[in-house]
Specification:
Shape: flat
CATH class of the largest domain: Alpha Beta
Structural class: alpha+beta
CATH superfamily of the largest domain: Histidine kinase-like ATPase, C-terminal domain
Radius of gyration: 28 Å
Number of domains: 3
Largest sheet: 9 strands, mixed
Helix content: 25-40%
Strand content: 15-25%
Distance between the termini: 29 Å
Amino acid sequence: MDNQEIQLQETPLTAEELNTEPVEQMDTAVSEEYGAGQIQVLEGLEAVRMRPGMYIGSTGPNGLHHLVYEIVDNSIDEALAGFCTHIEVEIEPGDIISVRDNGRGIPVDMNEKMGLPAVTVVLTVLHAGGKFGGSGYKVSGGLHGVGSSVVNALSEWFEVEVSRNGNVYRQRFERGNIMSDLDIVGTSDTTGTFIRFKADAEIFTETTVYEFEVLERRLRESAFLNAGLKITFTDRRDPDNVVERVFCFEGGLSEFVNYTNESHGLTPVQPAPIHFSSVRDDSSAEIALMYNDGYKETLISFANNVRTIDGGTHETGFKTALTKVFNDYGRKYGILKDNDKNLSGEDVREGIVAIISVKLTEAQFEGQTKGKLGNTEMTKLVSQTVVDKLMTYFEENPSVAKVLLNKALEASRVREAVRKAKESARKSALSNSSSLPGKLADCTDRNPENTELYIVEGDSAGGSAKLGRDNRYQAILPLWGKMLNVEKARLDKVIGNDKLTPVVTALGTGIDEDFDITKLRYHKIVIMADADVDGAHIRTLLLTFFFRYMRPLIDSGYIYIAQPPLFKVTKGKKVAYAFSDEERDEIIAEFGGSCDVQRYKGLGEMDPDQLRETTMDPANRTMLRVTLEDAILADETFSILMGDKVEPRREFIEKNAKYVQNLDI
C-alpha cells in the first residue's frame, strides 16, 4: 500500500488594528559590556550533522524552516534586550536565507579559552553564546543557545557579517568548517548582524525549498509578541514577482487576539480584547483574551517568544485563575445563585481566544523542542496577574463581565445536558445486546491491529464495498443523508446525532472526554467517498468530526482517505485505471491511442470486483494517511472551512484552488 500524507494549508488573513492600553515593559537592562568574556564554551559540534533531528526536530520541511527560526530568534533576543528595532528576512533565489538586524552585533574580540574570535566560537561550538551564565541576555529564546552553530553545521555554506566597533567583519563557513579568517571588509557607523546561509541538501534530502506561508506565519507571530518590533519579510526567488510583508504591531497581543478571531472566522462578544501584564523581579507575564460566539477554546502560550504547544505552568496558572475570577465575581454580584454549582474550567473557557506570553531568565522546557514550560514560579506569577487584573477589569466593566458570565452559565447548563445524554446513551447501549450499528458489515478478525473500517458514502457504494471486501479483516459502514457540521454545533447536538452515532459506536472509543483509544476496534479507518465536490465535502465533515472529538485517531495515524480511480481505460483485452487526467492520457498513449475510456462519476458505478481491485486490495490500492504537522494551523483551517463566516472561507478557497485536482466540477 502506498501511504501518502495530507497536510493542511494556512490562509493568512488581515488583522484589525485596535487601540489598547500600554503594556508594562519588562526591565531588560543588561550589561553594556557584551564581549568575548561573556561567551562560555560548553561542548563541541561533532554530533550535529550525525544526528540533526536531535537539534532541529527533523530533517524534513519542519526542520528546514527551523533553521530560519533559530537565526531570527537570535535577532529577537537582541530586541528583547532593547538593542534591536528592525529585522529583515529574505529568501533569495536558490532558497538562500538572509537575516539582518540592527542589534549590537555578535562580539568579535578574541575568546581566550578557544583562541578564536567570539563570533567564530558562537558559530562553531555547541552551547557557546551570551545566553549561558553571562549577562549578555536576561531573557532569550533560541534553541538553548545552540541555534547559530547548529544552523552553521547543517548549511552547505554560511556567511556572517558583523557591524561593530566602526568596522564590518566577515567570515565564511562550509558545513560548519571555518573557510576564512574573520576579516575586516569595510567600515560602518551602525551596528548589527547579517547572516546568509544555504541549507545542506545532504542533510535535508526531502526538500530545501522554503514555504513562504510557513515563514510568514512565524514572523507575523514574532511581531505580535514583541510590540513595536518591525520585521520585514521578502521573497525574491521570482524576480518578476517579489513579495514583501512588513509586520509591526504596536498593540502587541491585543492585535494577536484580533487576528486569531479574524483568521478563525469568529465573531467577538465583547468590544475589545482584555489586555494586561505584570512584572516580578526578572520575570514578566502578558496576557490578552477575548470571547467569541463559538464553543471551543483557543489558548496559545509562549515562553521567551517560544510557542509552548503542550502548555505548562503558565497555562496552568491562567486556567486556575480564570475559573476563580469568574466564580468569585459571579458570587459577589449574584450572577451565580446560592443553589448554582461553581462554574468549571471548561465552562469559563468556552469561546475564549487567549494569548499568554511569559518571559524569564532561566526558562526550563520539557523536551528538546520546548513543547512545555516547567518553571513552577510562573504558575504563581500568571495566576496572580489574572486574579488581580481581570477582577479589576470586571469591576470596571460590569456590562462585559455580565455577558461573559452568562455565556459561561449557558455552557454549564449545556454541559449538564451533555452529561445526562451520555449517561442515557450508556444505559441504552448496556440494555441492547447488539450494540453495533445495524448497517455495519463487520469483519471476523477481532484484533484491531489487523482490521480496517471503510466508512463509505451512500448505500449503493456500500453495497459494492460489502461484496468486494475481504470480510476477514475489512468492515464496511455505509453513511447516508446529510452529515452534521460539528464546527457549528455544540457537543449536546453531536451526541446522539443519527449520522455520527453509528461511526462512534462502530469504533467503540466514545468521544470527547470519554474517548478511550484502547477500545478502538480498527487501526485503519478509511474514508471512501466519491471523487467529486460532494465527496470532498463529506470527507471534510468527517475529518472535522475526528479532529474536534476524536483527535487521537489522527495523532496516532489511524485515519486514511481512499483513492478510487477516476477512469477505466480499455483497449481490447488491455485494462488500466487512471487516477488523474494526466495518468489517463499516459495510459492511452501507452496503449497506442483510440481507447475506450469510462469516467467514474461515483463509487456506485464500480462493480464489486473493480472496487476491490482498485481501491480496497492492499496489493494495488493507494491511500492517503491523514497527519497533522501543525495542530494550531489545522485548527484554524477547520474553523475557516466549516465555520459561519463566508469571507475567510472564500479567501482560503481562492488561495488554495491551485492545489485542487481531479474534482468533478
